[in-house]
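If it is no trouble, can you show me the amino acids of a protein and the tokens describing how it folds?
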Amino acid sequence: MGIGKRFKSPKVRILTALGLFFALTTGGAIWVGYAVKDQVKETAEEIAPAFSPDVISAAFDDRKCEHLGKAEWQTFIAQRYAVEKNYQKAHDAYVKARDESTEALGKDGVMTYTITGFQAHFEYQFRKYPLAEELFRQELSSLKKTKGSQKEIFYIQEWLANVLMDQGKIKQQINVLKDALSTARLVDQKEQSKSQEQTLDALDRLGSAYESARQYDKQEEICQQALTIARQLQDSKLVAQRLRDLGGAKCGRGDHAAAIKIYTEALSIDPNYLYAYTDRGWVYSYMHDYKHAIEDMNAAVKLDSQDKASSLCSRAGIYEQSGDYQKAIDDYTSAIAKSSRGSFTTSLYGCRASLFEKVGRLKDAIGDYTEILHHKEHPRTYIDRGDVYMQMHEPGVAIEDYSRALQFTESEKYQATERNPIASQIVYEKRAKAYVALGKPKLAEADHMRAQLETLSEQPKATSAAESKESNPEKVHDQSAVATAKDASSEHP
């Protein structure tokens, strides 16, 4: 086919435009010349600084141009399927795109590792964490081999750390974040950044990772480094934020008195720092000083300029710890009315439902669990509602909820995408008890057998403390007021 005919093709014209846009916005990776090779030499030379040498070479090679054109088109198709939430077709298109680019430029070519990065983010979005980790590592390796910019390397290191965190690989996450911190310092040094933005970001992430690993001494060291930078910058709000982080590290080590002192210093610098009030309130509650804890939470509620749902949630947690369940329920009711965030609102319903159970308002608990299921079906909610039905001596209805939960826990999709999936044997045991209460011993025995088979078939694996807690057969639902209230107050401003 002649050059003129190629250029007249609508598809090729679109692809050429897409390719040029891709090249100019990502710094390289383009099959320039696939459609109009003989006519774009001058254009290619003018914008050559934006291209890598391998792409410039490929622009005037028929075979390579053809592969790069196909790679660009498959990337476009993959992104379209990703928007449509069609995982398999998008995944397959990304694989084809990488193969085509590799054929033209090699696995470390600019376009190849750019597509690899696109696919890594896509896989992460669909919670395919092991594959996302592999792809981010490939992209990072290629960037280092081709001497990519330190800022790009830092960006990928942060994403790789996120993937490791979501897999519970905290030690590996910490190692990656240590590397990211070194990279961030190079970036800030090269850019002569007075704000040291990248370094502070890396310190924040590393400190959080140490906190997840319960290495509070290391977390404190990192927080001290960040605080030193903040003081050097003479930014009062930044200093208050870093003091808050340091207070959290002190609290983690069990030094509550020191934490109180640090939070108080943060509030002396920024009297309107809402999160310092909520954090100090929690520490007071650990010391069983509920009077001061409530005072701090009251101040947080007044300062909350958004929907007040988070601060009300935090205060509800303190009321629960102090044993004042009715006030906790009242705060949850107010928070539900004010909350505009879907997933957070369902958590609030879960918290209030657990409190309703504690005070014996079982029908109200059923109502809240049902409300959650109207928003989103989840096996944990079915199990929790089934447990309440058992308390109400309605085993037949409980069996329906446990059976619905099993439809989730036994599905491959649930097991593949859920970060901490519920083990089916837990649900079988619960349903077996319900069958006994209903006077159906044969069905109960069958469920006991299924539970034992599930236990034998499950491969032994190391689980985190959080996973162990969520696998507790006595209480699957882990939406206590205290847990959710802490999460509500943990957002960094």
